[in-house]
Request: fold
Amino acid sequence: MPKGAVLSHAAILAGARLIADSAGLTADDSTLVLVPLFHNTGFNDQLGALLVSGGTTHLLRRYRTTDAIDELRRRQATFLTAVPSILRLLMVAPDADVVYAGAQSVLFGGSPMPASWSDELLARWPHLTLLHGYGLTEFTSGATILPPELISQKGESVGRPAPGVELRIVDGEVWVAGPTRMSRYWGQPGLTSSKISGRWLRTGDLGRLDEDGLLWLTGRVDDVINRGGEKVLPAHVESKVAELPAIAEATVFAIPDTMLQQRVGVAVILRPDTALDVDAARRLLADTLPDYAVPEHWRVYDELPRTASGKADRRAVARDYQEQDARL
Reply:
């Protein structure tokens, strides 16, 4: 059954103002919504934020990289926001300058942003202001923001709590409280009680706070891969795979195994005019990952299956791998 998060008008307004203030949006700004409006990214972070700042919002009927570039060629956007995988697809496209040369600020979140991708954005378009945010539908999107001045040194952190937000780590899980928290799940009191504890929302995300109060996400509670008793965090492995020269995007997933319970697989999209040498890739990863976390099974995709928000769909990738494996 789909989850419906009940959000008050005040929460939606506060969430939109948070994004507008964090990105410094004004009436002179514009954006192109790349995802469905039933997602917080499009509804709150773009439409809502541009409404409260007096700017302009354009809509894309359905995301395809070429269609997005064509639309941005006609109507340039100064403010871009999307999950990292969509930003990456636009980065490696032949006409990436159409997207980024005229933009002023880029906000990303929803899934981990490898430091190598942020570094490439700034190297190719140094005028950009980059912000890394963390939030979820149940919190009207924004919970933390990493300011632009920390992107180069701390780019994989999602920052500090946004104004009015409280955050703590309970048994490795991120809990948040604040005025933008949902009141309940629609028609699901049992699920509501499992996620809300007093004023706190249990996010289901794993993370840690460093000595500077910055939040670092390490994965989802239900995404951890158990390889023979060793716990593997897919997001961490993905960030290391993304540093390989040939890789445009990577999604790590669990493969059932009768002996070890699970093994580590990875699905990748290659950069144009490159090839994948799996043995060489595994040797490079062995320098930065423990041996049990280095992916054993690799599969190259032209396009990864995606959720409605544009994230790579980890579960769909795992199903596809198992179905193809069963046919062999």
Notes: The chain has a mean pLDDT of 93. The chain has two domains: 5-219, 225-327. The first helix runs from residue 9 to 23.
